[in-house]
Write a structure and sequence with these properties.
With 327 residues, the protein is of the alpha+beta class. Helices cover 42% and strands 18% of the residues. The chain is globular, with a radius of gyration of 22 Å. The C terminus is likely disordered.
Length: 327
C-alpha cells in the first residue's frame, strides 16, 4: 500500500449524510453543522459558496466544492441573499430565529428544497465523523477547495446525482461507497494541482528511498520495524535513510511509525468489541500497557477516555441515520 492509499483509507462513509437540494431563487442556506468534511456538487444552475472568512466563490454546473470543517459557510443564489435556513449538527434544520423551518421541505427520497422544479440542483455529501488516519489529508486542505468542471476526470458526479434519490435495497451502502470514491478522486486531484503546495508526506511518495519506507510502514505497521530494517529494504544505509526521511517527510522514520500506529489505534478503539490488548497487538505494541502509555503521552488522554469521547461524538451520526430513514 502506498502512502496515499494508506491515508485515503481514512475517508470511509458510514451513514454519511447525502442530500439532493432543489432550489429556486431567492435561497440561502447557512451551514454550521461542524462536519469535518463536506462535498457539494453543482448539478444544475449556479450557486455561491461564502465562507465566514474568505471571498465568495461562484459555482457552475459540474463544479465540486470541498469544504473542510468545522467553520461555518453559506450556500446561496447570491452572496447578498440573507440565510433562510440554518443547518446545525446532526443536520437539524431551522430558521435563523431558531424556529421550525417553513419554506424548505422534503421533496422525495433524500431530496429537499423550496421547489420541486428548482433551477438549481445541488448534491451534498457530508462526513459526520472521519477516521483519525486521514487527519493529514484534512490538514492539507484549505477551508474551501473548488474543482471546476472537467478538472476531476470522473463520471462519479453525474452517477451520484442519479443515485441519490433512488430508493432500492442497499442504496445507503451504494451511496456511501460512491461518496468515498468521489472524495478520493477529489482529494487526489486537488493535491496534484500545480498551484497547490502539496504537503511533505505527499511529495515523499515519489522518492525511491523514502517512498519504499513509507509503503512498508503502511503495509505492516505491526511489524517490529527499525531504521536498520527499513534502510535495508530501501537499499541504503541507516544514516542515509534517517537523513533523507527526515528531510522529505519532516520527521524521523520511527516518529512517523509511532504516530501512524497511534492514529490506527485511535480508529480501532472506536470499535466497542475491541480490547486495548487486541488493538495493541494489531498495531505493533507489545502490551496494552505499552499502548496506553504511548497513547496518553502523545494524545493526552487514555485509550479508555478516547473511546468514551468518540462514542459521545458519534451521537449526531445516529440522528442523521434516523433522518435518512424518515425521508
Amino acid at each position: 500500500m502506498d502512502v496515499i492509499a494508506g491515508l485515503l483509507n481514512g475517508p470511509r462513509a458510514d451513514g454519511a449524510f447525502l442530500l439532493r437540494s432543489l432550489l429556486t431563487p431567492p435561497w440561502s442556506l447557512r451551514v454550521q453543522d461542524r462536519a469535518p468534511l463536506t462535498l457539494v456538487a453543482v448539478i444544475a444552475g449556479t450557486a455561491w459558496v461564502v465562507p465566514d472568512s474568505g471571498a465568495p466563490t461562484r459555482l457552475q454546473p459540474g463544479d465540486l466544492a470541498v469544504l473542510r470543517g468545522p467553520d461555518p459557510y453559506v450556500f446561496a443564489d447570491d452572496p447578498a441573499t440573507a440565510p433562510q435556513a440554518v443547518i446545525h449538527p446532526g443536520q437539524r434544520c431551522m430558521t435563523p430565529d431558531g424556529e421550525d423551518l417553513g419554506d424548505m421541505r422534503t421533496l422525495g427520497a433524500r431530496s429537499w428544497g423550496n421547489a420541486p422544479d428548482g433551477a438549481t440542483v445541488l448534491v451534498t455529501g457530508t462526513y459526520q465523523v472521519l477516521s483519525e488516519i486521514c487527519a493529514p489529508l484534512l490538514d492539507a486542505l484549505p477551508p474551501l477547495a473548488v474543482l471546476r468542471e472537467g478538472e476531476c476526470d470522473t463520471p462519479l458526479i453525474p452517477l451520484l446525482a442519479a443515485e441519490v434519490s433512488r430508493e432500492t435495497p442497499g442504496q445507503d451502502a451504494v451511496l456511501d461507497r460512491l461518496l468515498d470514491l468521489l472524495t478520493v478522486v477529489a482529494l487526489r486531484t486537488w493535491l496534484a494541482r500545480p498551484d497547490v503546495e502539496a504537503p511533505a508526506w505527499y511529495r515523499a511518495q515519489d522518492d525511491p528511498v523514502v517512498g519504499t519506507a513509507l509503503r512498508l510502514i503502511h503495509d505492516d505497521p505491526a511489524h517490529p520495524w527499525t531504521v536498520a530494517a527499513l534502510a535495508e529494504a530501501a537499499h541504503v544505509s541507516r544514516a542515509a535513510l534517517a537523513r533523507r526521511f527526515s528531510a522529505e517527510v519532516g520527521e524521523p522514520p520511527m516518529a512517523y511509525l509511532a504516530n501512524w500506529r497511534l492514529a490506527l489505534s485511535a480508529d480501532l478503539l472506536c470499535d466497542p468489541a475491541a480490547t486495548i490488548a487486541s488493538v495493541a497487538e494489531r498495531v505493533g505494541y507489545g502490551s496494552a500497557f505499552a499502548l496506553s502509555a504511548a497513547f496518553k503521552r502523545v494524545r493526552g488522554v487514555s485509550p479508555k477516555e478516547h473511546r468514551e469521547r468518540a462514542a459521545r461524538e458519534a451521537g449526531p451520526v445516529a440522528e442523521v441515520r434516523a433522518w435518512r430513514v424518515a425521508v
